Sequence to fold (155 residues):
Amino acid sequence: MSIETVRAFLAETAPDLAVIELAESTATVALAAQGHGVEPGQIAKTLSLRVGERVFLVVTRGDARLDNRKAKAAFGGKVKMLGADEVLSVTGHPVGGVSPFGLKTQLAVYCDVSLKDFDQVLPAAGSTHSAVRITPDRMAALTAAEWVDVCSVEA
Fold:
């Protein structure tokens, strides 16, 4: 189960962080924000993307959208979202629960600068009912992420 890979990753790299599990689904930004009592922007959504043969993750604030022009410039080509089956096979996490932690395959992780608008964010923790409360800088450090500006925040 992918929540276990996230727990194992955190136990090894950040034992002070705990996986938060809720009874209700947190598979969408709106559900996650409601369940955790935070604004939608604080939900750190993890996008599984591809440019050519290169697959990678972008973590952004929940109320942001990928800006195709910025993403093409940053990643060197047209960015495409992975399908649900490919997301699961590459990350080990289901759509709605994709975490930048405890990945099945080693992938490059990028964090969008929009996350820095918050002191704490909540990325999913490998299931549609789990998350981790963490600072954006620490999440980037734990995942060896590079900061990028590839999203636009919806007004």
Notes: The chain has one domain: 2-153. The first strand starts at residue 19 and ends at 21.
